Amino acid sequence: MTALDLRDRAAPPSTAPASSRPGPAALLLRAAAALSRGLFIAVPVMLVSTFITFMLGGLTEQDPASVVLGDSATPADVQRMREAFGLDRPLLLRYVTWLWNALHGDLGASWFTKIPVAQSIAERLPVSLSVAAGALLIAVVLGGVFGTLAAVRQGGLLDRTVTVVTSVLATVPGFVAAVALITVFALIVPVLPAGGWAPPSAGLGTWASFLLLPSLALSLDAAADVARQLRTGLAGTLHENYIVGARMRGLPGRRVVLVHALRNGAGPAVAVLGMHVPRLIGGAVITETVFALPGIGELTKSAALSGDVPVVQGALLVTIAVVLVSSAIVNVLLVKLRPAARREL
């Protein structure tokens, strides 16, 4: 093999001629195609999940009218309340009406408080999204840093330490991590509040202090999985020909890892992060309970315990929508990161 052949094979993708690189329009088209494909999958998933959610509420043995009116209600009163709730209509017709109204922003009203469900969710959703976004950010930072360091130091002490720690963290339930963090940072070393919530309007520092512990407790298993997947992806990428060629040409090691290798080795980590998004949102129920946060998880739990079906259905609908949108965004990121995925479009 000649030196010229070696240079050609070892050259990193970034040295390709400008004429062979896709332009902004092509990149935008590919991203739009990936997003469209994700939405094409998301629509039937949304329909099926909302149908199951509505059926579970409609098939419950508990009579909402009797619950709202109490034991002293007469049968005539119960019948009038059932008509007011629309419970006298066929279940499928009620689902179609509910879904049509939901698409127009009307999720109904609570059977007990008469507060519109959309209003209750709008008040609670920013809390849950803040915690989930904070957990996602912490998972990306911690998992990215330690996964990259472990891949660069393959077989060394740091690599083995990261492997052991991430294996342990991946098995720790969120509520156990939450209790441990409260014990350490709110009781033993009282530097952060043990629970409660403060909006951003109270000051960014105050808001961040209430946000840090819940987000950290929710992010540990996601950070562990991201670190392991990123370490595995980078470990193989760092031995590719174009990486070896980039090093032979004298490119700085930091640039080789963070620019050339990371882009091609981060695909599995991004994929597993996308799988954790539903867990971050679903885990908010336990986290919000431990930290007494007024989020959508706490709203759903309270409504489920009291039998307030419209609130439960509306909260689950919004949660499903957030998960599907997040999954579509992850698909776009994967297409952006993986050249093979871009060639499939």
Detailed description of the structure:
The protein has helices at residues 3-10, 24-58, 64-69, 75-85, 91-103, 117-152, 157-169, 174-188, 204-237, 241-248, 253-265, 267-282, 284-291, 296-306, 309-337, 339-344. By secondary structure, it is an all-alpha fold. α6 packs parallel to α15 (309-337), α8 packs parallel to α13 (284-291) and α14 packs antiparallel against α15. The relative contact order is 0.14.
- The helix fraction, in percent, is over 70%
Taken in chain order, the helices and strands follow as HHHHHHHHHHHHHHHH
Q: How many strands, which pairing sense, and closed or not: the largest β-sheet? A: none
Q: How big a fraction of the residues is strand? A: under 5%
Quote the distance from N terminus to C terminus: 35 Å
The residue-averaged pLDDT reads 78
Radius of gyration (Å) = 25 Å
Quantity of strands, as a count: 0
The gross shape turns out to be globular
Low-pLDDT segments: 1-20, 340-345
Total number of helices? 16
Instruction: Assign the structural class, choosing from mainly alpha, mainly beta, alpha/beta, alpha+beta, or little secondary structure.
Output: mainly alpha
Outline of this structure?
It contains 16 helices and no strands.
Which characteristics define this entry?
345 residues; mainly alpha; 16 helices; 76% helix; globular; disordered N terminus; disordered C terminus
